[in-house]
């Protein structure tokens, strides 16, 4: 892995932890974070020793406080549109073939919330705060917020967050289904790593296909989705891991999956 300026990558057994590392700017997403994030995901995608990715923000105060507002000044409609049509960090996470967990340790605002939404699971500290505050800057979410937030929590709740820009607390985010679990701040990392390690023991190809099938639900109608599910289900029957999973069950032992 190259040395990055704005992110760090740590490996813990089969889990990689990608940390956005601009704590003095509350980990705001500037262009370099996007570029380095996309490059790191390309590497991690190809690394078979990595089974699950955790994304978090450096420091105790903030996950990500949104897009770097300092960079808005130089943007024109054309440059901004091109930037978001390019391979963004958000879309690279969405397309990442392995499970991705957002470990939300504080402010989760604007592009930060959009980045968390692009992940598969969101675990948050009790002091986390969530918002889509773009409306206060006279703009709207542009990193998938209007779409992914609405898919996840429903139109009424999404509309309220996006039209008011107000922050919601972790308990409300949990009630909305925006996060999967909340934990005391000092427990968040341990609980996240427990969940990541549990998923990392599952069959990698089945994880990838399961992720693809679930994500397809928001992008298709029911008939197309059911057809896609059957196709992906059938592919599992070509894997060694399926033979191993079934054999292990019948032999009353723990399966050891190899991603083959
Ligand atoms: N872009 C660029 N810099 C940001 C930032 C962002 N989105 N969010 C915070 N920062 C910077 C601040 O400018 C400050 O930098 P400085 O020390 O060089 O002045 C530093 O991070 C700390 O933030 P600060 O505002 O002093 O902390 P706070 O505890 O008083 O307030 C927030 C925290 C999150 C409420 C406040 O920083 C904020 O509203 N940020 C913008 C959130 C936003 O609108 N995001 C969506 C952008 S589309």
Which features does this protein show?
260 residues, alpha/beta, 2-enoyl-CoA Hydratase, Chain A, domain 1, Lyase 2-enoyl-coa Hydratase, Chain  A, domain 2, 2 domains, six-stranded mixed sheet, four-stranded mixed sheet, 11 helices, binds coenzyme A
What oligomeric state best describes the polypeptide chains here?
single chain
CATH topology of the largest domain: 2-enoyl-CoA Hydratase, Chain A, domain 1
The count of helical stretches stands at: 11
**Outline type:** globular
Assigned CATH architecture of the largest domain: Alpha-Beta Complex
Number of spatially distinct domains: 2
Spans where pLDDT lies below 50 across 5 or more residues: none
Distance between the termini: 25 Å
pLDDT averaged over residues: 96
The biggest sheet amounts to: 6 strands, mixed
The share of residues in extended strands comes to: 15-25%
What's the quick description here?
The protein is an alpha/beta fold and 260 residues long. It has helices spanning 31-46, 77-85, 89-94, 111-118, 145-153, 155-164, 170-176, 185-200, 204-217, 222-236, 240-250; strands at residues 7-12, 15-20, 52-57, 62-64, 100-104, 107-109, 121-125, 129-131, 168-169, 181-183.
